[in-house]
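We treat protein structure as text, and this decision shapes the records that our systems exchange. The tokens are whole numbers drawn from a learned vocabulary of local backbone shapes. One such record is reproduced below, unchanged from the form in which we store it:
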Amino acid sequence: MNIEPANLQVVLITGMSGSGKSVVLHALEDTGFFCVDNLPPELLLPFMSLERQHNANRVAIAMDARNASALPLMPAQLERLKKEGVRVKTLFLDASTDTLVRRYSESRRKHPLSQPESAQSVNEQRRALVDAIELERKLLADLREDAHVIDTSILRPSQLQGYIKSLISSPGNQLTLVFESFAFKRGVPRDADYVFDVRMLPNPHYEAELRHLTGQDVAVASFLQQQPDVVRMIGHIHDFLNQWLEALARDHRSYVTVAIGCTGGQHRSVYLVEQLAQRFSSQWITLKRHRELPDAPTTVGSATS
């Protein structure tokens, strides 16, 4: 007997070439997904029909701009699958142009939208690559608008894999609230829906005994929770989100990413993410991740309601 559509989960992975789609596919394959790379959009519905006949229940599909002419078909096809009861998650992997140029230069791969090569100087080659990347951004803009965006600019493959596994484990029919700490000196995350700057708060970095610690350590937490401005900032961010999350959920948002930034991404932003995730975990599915702490896993909090 074929599996019911309600039990069928589909993860569509799209995004910029060189942003890490193969890493995500490998992570999903590790968790039991049947993975297909570069499926032409016009074959999505026939492919899903075939997978139902094979009693599949977890399918991951990667698509990119090589199928640009058929990409406009995707929104209607995804909506049809949802109406049939299929649980669909769409992930869009992004990265800064400079990052993508560097990755292509290091790998010596050719961008899928690059024109046939001719005799060019290094500067001309870089300009051609940047043009291809910007064209790809334009072609994928509509898919990005309706997807959960993940900025991989400075993520290591192991960090991206860990985040994907946590993200997929969260329920797809509820809004998921993602808290992320980061360092302004390394750039604002491109996947953030809201960004809060906490660099004006007292900095544990200037306390010798706290400098080598992080906002996850008790000593740093004790220092920060004694600072009135820190307490006030947490309250303000909490009140703002609490005011608008219900409206975002009613607007059928699947994910809301809240980025908290300080100078180094080690102390203040980490502490605020920990505190806010704890406060909201009883109301919403929450994820927390610390971009600048390479050994910190992405963790999930489940709403009790």
Notes: The radius of gyration is 21 Å.
